[in-house]
Design brief:
With about 325 residues, the chain is an alpha+beta fold. Helices cover about 40% and strands about 15% of the residues. It has a seven-stranded mixed beta sheet, with helices on both faces. A two-stranded antiparallel ribbon has the order 7-8.
């Protein structure tokens, strides 16, 4: 489907659900971006979920977002259970504004929801010549090291920096072996997931996506990944006033109340300590790219390069609409 057509369609759906034109546009742009960078688990496959939560009054389509200025650099936002895209857009813009004034911006958000891809917001800061770190928590998926019960979310960690070129460095990764969105897409498509990424509810390795969703996802690097998930839960949950310790509600399965996801955005000027940052970062990247390559690798790429190339390639194509998404669209359009 043509980008323009899908944009109008999604925009119409979100406005019909009560979002303002501005908030519908923010939400639609984020979902389409996910499709264009190939992050399908964060794209149109989640459309119906967002709409269902709005219909059940678990996402507030008309939020009264409140901002408390702690200092010139630090702000605390109560998103009033808005759709996560809107809360995050407001949060990153506030962090950018603070950093431009003082050199550093720190914004904590509570009472938000799932906001898609952290890297999408990191790009906004990088375009303003800022370095950025982003943390957000999620519903239980990862068991703390040594436990049999899921408690932490897949809790992504995001770091981004300008590179002095048109392709930014953006590391946006969940602390799970694969992100939960990919498992959900596999479950809807009746496809298997790789062995070694999840356990079923009995603690046995599984390639069945549905069993994985009811079981435990495995973290990267064993106890280290579990520790990183815990760190993100503290930074985006405990610190911000949002839910934490396994209390973030699953947006697909738990309709007992709002999610109350927390986000933390930290932005700062790249030249705070060294005025020749661009020269130094280019030297850093060049040195690493020149390293001898192992068999099967033609070149060494930095985080963000592949995503940029996928976006560039997919931008020239129509957006692929799966059968399950077609079914969702037919239901939502009515």
């Amino acid at each position: 489907m043509k980008h323009q057509k899908i944009f109008k369609l999604l925009n119409k759906i979100f406005v019909s659900k009560g979002l303002s034109k501005q908030h519908a546009k923010i939400t639609t742009n984020a979902l389409i971006n996910a499709e264009l960078v190939g992050a399908y688990g964060h794209g149109l496959s989640r459309l119906k979920m967002y709409c269902d939560r709005i219909s059940k009054k678990l996402i507030n389509p008309k939020p009264k977002i409140k901002i408390k200025k702690i200092t010139a650099s630090i702000s605390h936002i109560d998103a009033d259970n808005s759709i996560g895209f809107v809360a995050a857009d407001f949060g990153i813009k506030t962090a950018i504004q603070n950093a431009k004034k003082t050199g550093i911006g720190m914004v904590a958000i509570k009472n938000s929801g799932h906001y898609g891809m952290s890297g999408y917001y990191a790009e906004q800061a990088i375009k303003k010549n800022l370095i950025v770190m982003i943390f957000t928590n999620g519903p239980p998926a990862i068991a703390p090291h040594g436990a049999m019960k899921s408690l932490f979310g897949t809790n992504p960690i995001c770091f981004g920096t300008p590179t002095g070129t048109k392709i930014p460095f953006i590391l946006d990764t969940s602390i799970s072996m694969i992100n939960r969105g990919k498992i959900r897409v596999a479950a809807r498509s009746n496809k298997k997931i790789p062995l070694g990424v999840a356990l079923d509810k009995f603690g046995n390795p599984t390639t069945d996506a549905r069993k994985a969703l009811k079981g435990v996802q495995l973290p990267i690097a064993g106890f280290r990944g579990s520790g990183l998930a815990w760190m993100v839960d503290i930074l985006s949950g405990v610190l911000t006033g949002a839910n934490h310790s396994g209390h973030v509600k699953d947006p697909f399965d738990d309709f007992t109340g709002p999610q109350n996801v927390g986000h933390l955005f930290i932005t700062f000027k790249k030249n705070l300590f060294q005025k020749d940052f661009n020269k130094r970062i280019l030297s850093n990247i060049k040195t690493i790219k020149k390293l001898p390559k192992i068999k099967g690798f033609n070149k060494i790429m930095y985080p963000g390069q592949n995503k940029y190339l996928r976006f560039k390639k997919n931008f020239k194509k129509d957006i692929r609409i799966t059968n399950s998404v077609k079914k969702d669209l037919k239901e939502l359009i009515g």
